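FORM 12-B: Structure-to-Sequence Request
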């Protein structure tokens, strides 16, 4: 019985520590809300996991919005190869757009592959690249835009 009480006390203390940690953050309200949600439920999801998932989702959203906005404005599909014979400013803007929209472009390419070319290793490697790139974009956005 004593072990059960210790486990309950340890879990309760962990939840209180997470609530304190969540209230001490000065970041985006949605991220703080997510940490408080998981701390309230008493789950074993750490704040690092929430930040990782939030960063991946935010980065992929930024990439998708950037590529879709470009395609809406220019009425042509964005791809990785840069156009030949473009000026320096066009080349720099095109490069930055491809850096910003890379995860979306890779995911779109992976979804559009022929069934015979969908090797599980290729899909897994592409998914890791998309997740890593999206995470980098998301953390960059959180660090520059959302931290007070």
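FORM 12-B RESPONSE
SEQUENCE OUT:
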């Amino acid at each position: 019985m004593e072990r059960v009480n210790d486990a309950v006390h340890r879990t309760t203390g962990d939840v209180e520590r997470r609530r304190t940690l969540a209230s001490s953050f000065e970041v985006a309200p949605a991220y703080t809300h997510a940490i408080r949600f998981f701390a309230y439920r008493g789950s074993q999801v750490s704040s690092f996991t929430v930040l990782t998932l939030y960063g991946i989702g935010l980065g992929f959203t930024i990439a998708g919005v950037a590529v879709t906005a470009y395609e809406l404005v220019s009425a042509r599909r964005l791809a990785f190869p840069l156009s030949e014979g473009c000026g320096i400013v066009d080349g720099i803007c095109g490069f930055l757009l491809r850096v910003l929209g890379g995860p979306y472009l890779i995911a779109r390419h992976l979804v559009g592959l022929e069934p015979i070319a969908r090797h599980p290793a290729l899909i897994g490697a592409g998914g890791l690249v998309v997740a890593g790139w999206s995470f980098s974009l998301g953390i960059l956005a959180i660090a520059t835009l959302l931290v007070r």
